[in-house]
Amino acid sequence: MARAIERIDRDLAMLEEAIMAIAAELQSAYTIYLTLLGEAVRKQLILASYHLCTQGYPENFLRLSLNQRQKLQQAIRKLGKQLSEQLLTYINGEAVKEDENVAENDGNDNEELVVENSIINLPDSSNPVELAKWQNSLEELTQQALKKISHDTNVLLQKADILPKKVPEPILEAAAAASEAAAEIMPGPPNLLNLVIEIDDEQDEEESSFTQIMAINLRLGEVEFADATLASSRKQIRNILVKLQKLGREYQKKQRERSIAEAEAAWRSSWYED
Question: Which pTM value belongs to this model?
Protein backbone atom coordinates (compact mmCIF):
# COMPACT_ATOMS: atom_id res chain seq x y z
CA MET A 1 0.00 0.00 0.00
CA ALA A 2 2.88 2.36 0.79
CA ARG A 3 4.26 1.76 -2.68
CA ALA A 4 0.87 2.56 -4.20
CA ILE A 5 0.77 5.89 -2.34
CA GLU A 6 4.34 6.67 -3.46
CA ARG A 7 3.36 5.95 -7.08
CA ILE A 8 0.31 8.21 -6.79
CA ASP A 9 2.46 10.95 -5.27
CA ARG A 10 4.85 10.73 -8.22
CA ASP A 11 1.91 11.02 -10.60
CA LEU A 12 0.59 14.02 -8.68
CA ALA A 13 4.01 15.68 -8.77
CA MET A 14 4.15 15.27 -12.55
CA LEU A 15 0.65 16.68 -12.91
CA GLU A 16 1.51 19.64 -10.68
CA GLU A 17 4.54 20.38 -12.83
CA ALA A 18 2.40 20.27 -15.96
CA ILE A 19 -0.21 22.54 -14.35
CA MET A 20 2.46 25.09 -13.38
CA ALA A 21 3.62 25.10 -16.99
CA ILE A 22 0.03 25.70 -18.11
CA ALA A 23 -0.24 28.54 -15.57
CA ALA A 24 2.84 30.25 -17.05
CA GLU A 25 1.48 29.73 -20.55
CA LEU A 26 -1.89 31.16 -19.55
CA GLN A 27 -0.34 34.21 -17.91
CA SER A 28 1.73 34.89 -21.03
CA ALA A 29 -1.34 34.49 -23.25
CA TYR A 30 -3.35 36.91 -21.09
CA THR A 31 -0.54 39.47 -21.17
CA ILE A 32 -0.69 39.44 -24.96
CA TYR A 33 -4.48 39.41 -24.99
CA LEU A 34 -4.91 42.31 -22.57
CA THR A 35 -2.33 44.36 -24.47
CA LEU A 36 -4.23 43.78 -27.71
CA LEU A 37 -7.56 44.40 -25.97
CA GLY A 38 -6.39 47.76 -24.66
CA GLU A 39 -5.40 48.89 -28.15
CA ALA A 40 -8.65 47.58 -29.65
CA VAL A 41 -10.77 49.34 -27.04
CA ARG A 42 -8.95 52.63 -27.60
CA LYS A 43 -9.73 52.46 -31.32
CA GLN A 44 -13.31 51.28 -30.95
CA LEU A 45 -14.09 53.78 -28.20
CA ILE A 46 -13.05 56.59 -30.55
CA LEU A 47 -15.07 55.05 -33.39
CA ALA A 48 -18.18 54.65 -31.22
CA SER A 49 -17.82 58.21 -29.90
CA TYR A 50 -17.41 59.50 -33.45
CA HIS A 51 -20.58 57.72 -34.54
CA LEU A 52 -22.51 58.98 -31.52
CA CYS A 53 -21.41 62.60 -32.00
CA THR A 54 -21.79 62.76 -35.78
CA GLN A 55 -24.80 60.51 -36.41
CA GLY A 56 -26.50 60.20 -33.06
CA TYR A 57 -26.35 63.82 -31.91
CA PRO A 58 -24.84 65.88 -34.76
CA GLU A 59 -26.71 69.07 -33.79
CA ASN A 60 -25.44 68.92 -30.21
CA PHE A 61 -21.87 68.32 -31.36
CA LEU A 62 -22.01 71.23 -33.80
CA ARG A 63 -23.00 73.57 -30.96
CA LEU A 64 -19.61 73.05 -29.34
CA SER A 65 -16.80 75.45 -30.09
CA LEU A 66 -13.62 74.17 -31.73
CA ASN A 67 -11.85 74.29 -28.38
CA GLN A 68 -14.64 72.33 -26.66
CA ARG A 69 -14.61 69.67 -29.38
CA GLN A 70 -10.86 69.26 -29.10
CA LYS A 71 -11.00 68.98 -25.32
CA LEU A 72 -13.80 66.43 -25.56
CA GLN A 73 -11.83 64.36 -28.07
CA GLN A 74 -8.71 64.61 -25.91
CA ALA A 75 -10.65 63.45 -22.85
CA ILE A 76 -12.00 60.44 -24.76
CA ARG A 77 -8.48 59.52 -25.87
CA LYS A 78 -7.28 59.75 -22.26
CA LEU A 79 -10.00 57.38 -21.12
CA GLY A 80 -8.85 54.87 -23.72
CA LYS A 81 -5.23 55.25 -22.66
CA GLN A 82 -6.13 54.75 -19.02
CA LEU A 83 -8.06 51.60 -19.87
CA SER A 84 -5.05 50.15 -21.72
CA GLU A 85 -2.79 50.75 -18.73
CA GLN A 86 -5.44 49.52 -16.32
CA LEU A 87 -5.80 46.15 -18.04
CA LEU A 88 -2.08 45.41 -17.85
CA THR A 89 -1.97 46.06 -14.10
CA TYR A 90 -4.35 43.13 -13.64
CA ILE A 91 -1.85 40.68 -15.08
CA ASN A 92 1.39 42.35 -13.95
CA GLY A 93 0.34 42.80 -10.35
CA GLU A 94 1.41 46.43 -10.19
CA ALA A 95 -0.71 48.93 -8.32
CA VAL A 96 -1.02 52.15 -10.28
CA LYS A 97 -3.42 55.03 -9.83
CA GLU A 98 -3.67 57.79 -12.40
CA ASP A 99 -5.35 61.16 -12.15
CA GLU A 100 -6.44 62.78 -15.37
CA ASN A 101 -8.09 66.12 -15.98
CA VAL A 102 -11.19 65.69 -18.08
CA ALA A 103 -12.67 68.81 -19.61
CA GLU A 104 -16.28 69.53 -18.84
CA ASN A 105 -18.72 71.00 -21.30
CA ASP A 106 -17.80 74.65 -20.69
CA GLY A 107 -14.09 74.03 -21.26
CA ASN A 108 -13.12 75.81 -18.03
CA ASP A 109 -13.78 73.50 -15.10
CA ASN A 110 -11.98 70.21 -14.76
CA GLU A 111 -13.14 66.94 -13.31
CA GLU A 112 -10.56 64.72 -11.65
CA LEU A 113 -10.87 61.23 -13.00
CA VAL A 114 -9.38 58.56 -10.77
CA VAL A 115 -8.84 55.06 -12.07
CA GLU A 116 -8.83 52.45 -9.32
CA ASN A 117 -6.85 49.27 -9.85
CA SER A 118 -7.46 45.77 -8.57
CA ILE A 119 -4.67 43.24 -8.54
CA ILE A 120 -5.18 39.54 -9.18
CA ASN A 121 -1.98 37.62 -8.54
CA LEU A 122 -1.33 34.27 -10.18
CA PRO A 123 -1.61 31.57 -7.46
CA ASP A 124 1.68 30.10 -6.26
CA SER A 125 0.23 26.63 -5.87
CA SER A 126 -0.40 24.21 -8.72
CA ASN A 127 -3.99 23.66 -7.67
CA PRO A 128 -6.04 23.82 -10.89
CA VAL A 129 -9.08 25.05 -8.94
CA GLU A 130 -7.15 28.11 -7.72
CA LEU A 131 -5.83 28.72 -11.21
CA ALA A 132 -9.38 28.60 -12.61
CA LYS A 133 -10.48 31.10 -9.94
CA TRP A 134 -7.64 33.41 -10.98
CA GLN A 135 -8.73 33.21 -14.60
CA ASN A 136 -12.38 33.88 -13.72
CA SER A 137 -11.41 36.90 -11.60
CA LEU A 138 -9.34 38.25 -14.47
CA GLU A 139 -12.30 37.94 -16.82
CA GLU A 140 -14.61 39.65 -14.33
CA LEU A 141 -12.20 42.56 -13.91
CA THR A 142 -11.96 42.93 -17.67
CA GLN A 143 -15.75 43.10 -18.00
CA GLN A 144 -15.93 45.63 -15.17
CA ALA A 145 -13.25 47.76 -16.85
CA LEU A 146 -15.26 47.89 -20.10
CA LYS A 147 -18.41 48.74 -18.19
CA LYS A 148 -16.63 51.54 -16.33
CA ILE A 149 -15.07 53.13 -19.40
CA SER A 150 -18.47 52.99 -21.13
CA HIS A 151 -20.06 54.75 -18.17
CA ASP A 152 -17.27 57.32 -17.84
CA THR A 153 -17.47 58.16 -21.54
CA ASN A 154 -21.25 58.56 -21.34
CA VAL A 155 -20.90 60.90 -18.36
CA LEU A 156 -18.28 62.87 -20.28
CA LEU A 157 -20.58 63.18 -23.28
CA GLN A 158 -23.46 64.19 -21.07
CA LYS A 159 -21.42 66.94 -19.40
CA ALA A 160 -20.40 68.16 -22.83
CA ASP A 161 -24.12 68.50 -23.71
CA ILE A 162 -23.92 65.75 -26.33
CA LEU A 163 -26.06 63.23 -24.46
CA PRO A 164 -29.30 64.69 -23.07
CA LYS A 165 -28.98 65.75 -19.44
CA LYS A 166 -32.51 64.53 -18.70
CA VAL A 167 -31.33 60.94 -19.08
CA PRO A 168 -31.17 59.54 -15.52
CA GLU A 169 -27.75 58.65 -14.11
CA PRO A 170 -28.78 55.02 -13.42
CA ILE A 171 -29.31 54.57 -17.15
CA LEU A 172 -25.70 55.52 -17.79
CA GLU A 173 -24.45 53.35 -14.94
CA ALA A 174 -26.36 50.32 -16.14
CA ALA A 175 -26.01 50.73 -19.90
CA ALA A 176 -25.01 47.09 -20.29
CA ALA A 177 -28.20 46.02 -18.52
CA ALA A 178 -30.33 48.74 -20.04
CA SER A 179 -33.03 46.30 -21.06
CA GLU A 180 -34.24 46.37 -17.47
CA ALA A 181 -34.75 50.14 -17.57
CA ALA A 182 -35.70 50.66 -21.18
CA ALA A 183 -38.97 50.05 -22.94
CA GLU A 184 -37.21 48.89 -26.09
CA ILE A 185 -33.73 48.11 -27.35
CA MET A 186 -33.07 48.89 -30.99
CA PRO A 187 -30.25 47.38 -33.07
CA GLY A 188 -27.40 49.70 -33.98
CA PRO A 189 -23.66 50.03 -34.66
CA PRO A 190 -21.12 48.08 -32.57
CA ASN A 191 -20.45 49.25 -29.02
CA LEU A 192 -23.41 51.62 -29.08
CA LEU A 193 -26.76 51.11 -27.46
CA ASN A 194 -29.94 52.61 -28.86
CA LEU A 195 -32.52 52.95 -26.11
CA VAL A 196 -36.08 54.10 -25.89
CA ILE A 197 -36.68 55.13 -22.31
CA GLU A 198 -39.63 56.55 -20.45
CA ILE A 199 -38.96 59.80 -18.60
CA ASP A 200 -41.48 61.05 -16.06
CA ASP A 201 -42.56 64.68 -16.11
CA GLU A 202 -41.34 66.37 -12.92
CA GLN A 203 -44.22 68.82 -13.04
CA ASP A 204 -46.92 66.23 -13.61
CA GLU A 205 -46.43 62.79 -12.05
CA GLU A 206 -49.05 61.29 -14.34
CA GLU A 207 -47.36 62.54 -17.50
CA SER A 208 -44.34 60.86 -19.08
CA SER A 209 -42.64 60.81 -22.45
CA PHE A 210 -40.60 58.30 -24.42
CA THR A 211 -37.17 59.45 -25.53
CA GLN A 212 -34.73 57.64 -27.78
CA ILE A 213 -31.09 57.93 -26.74
CA MET A 214 -27.79 56.54 -27.94
CA ALA A 215 -25.10 55.61 -25.44
CA ILE A 216 -21.63 54.08 -25.43
CA ASN A 217 -21.71 50.41 -24.45
CA LEU A 218 -18.44 48.59 -25.12
CA ARG A 219 -19.10 44.87 -25.40
CA LEU A 220 -16.22 42.42 -25.17
CA GLY A 221 -17.68 40.15 -27.85
CA GLU A 222 -18.05 43.02 -30.32
CA VAL A 223 -14.58 44.37 -29.57
CA GLU A 224 -13.08 40.93 -30.24
CA PHE A 225 -15.19 40.38 -33.36
CA ALA A 226 -13.94 43.61 -34.92
CA ASP A 227 -10.26 42.77 -34.36
CA ALA A 228 -8.94 39.58 -35.96
CA THR A 229 -5.68 39.60 -34.00
CA LEU A 230 -7.53 39.99 -30.71
CA ALA A 231 -9.96 37.23 -31.65
CA SER A 232 -7.02 34.93 -32.43
CA SER A 233 -5.50 35.73 -29.03
CA ARG A 234 -8.79 34.84 -27.34
CA LYS A 235 -8.84 31.53 -29.23
CA GLN A 236 -5.37 30.73 -27.90
CA ILE A 237 -6.59 31.34 -24.34
CA ARG A 238 -9.51 29.00 -24.92
CA ASN A 239 -7.16 26.28 -26.15
CA ILE A 240 -4.99 26.64 -23.05
CA LEU A 241 -8.07 26.44 -20.83
CA VAL A 242 -9.09 23.18 -22.51
CA LYS A 243 -5.70 21.71 -21.58
CA LEU A 244 -6.05 23.05 -18.04
CA GLN A 245 -9.47 21.47 -17.63
CA LYS A 246 -8.13 18.11 -18.79
CA LEU A 247 -5.22 18.27 -16.37
CA GLY A 248 -7.57 19.41 -13.63
CA ARG A 249 -9.75 16.33 -14.07
CA GLU A 250 -6.69 14.06 -13.97
CA TYR A 251 -5.40 15.87 -10.88
CA GLN A 252 -8.69 15.48 -9.03
CA LYS A 253 -8.82 11.81 -10.00
CA LYS A 254 -5.32 11.21 -8.61
CA GLN A 255 -6.14 13.08 -5.42
CA ARG A 256 -9.19 10.86 -5.02
CA GLU A 257 -7.04 7.75 -5.56
CA ARG A 258 -4.60 8.95 -2.90
CA SER A 259 -7.38 9.57 -0.39
CA ILE A 260 -8.74 6.09 -1.00
CA ALA A 261 -5.28 4.52 -0.66
CA GLU A 262 -4.64 6.42 2.57
CA ALA A 263 -8.03 5.43 3.96
CA GLU A 264 -7.42 1.77 3.12
CA ALA A 265 -4.01 1.91 4.80
CA ALA A 266 -5.50 3.62 7.85
CA TRP A 267 -8.21 0.97 8.06
CA ARG A 268 -5.68 -1.85 7.99
CA SER A 269 -3.40 -0.20 10.54
CA SER A 270 -6.21 0.22 13.06
CA TRP A 271 -7.96 -3.11 12.49
CA TYR A 272 -7.53 -5.95 14.93
CA GLU A 273 -9.45 -9.16 15.57
CA ASP A 274 -11.49 -9.45 18.77
Answer: 0.79
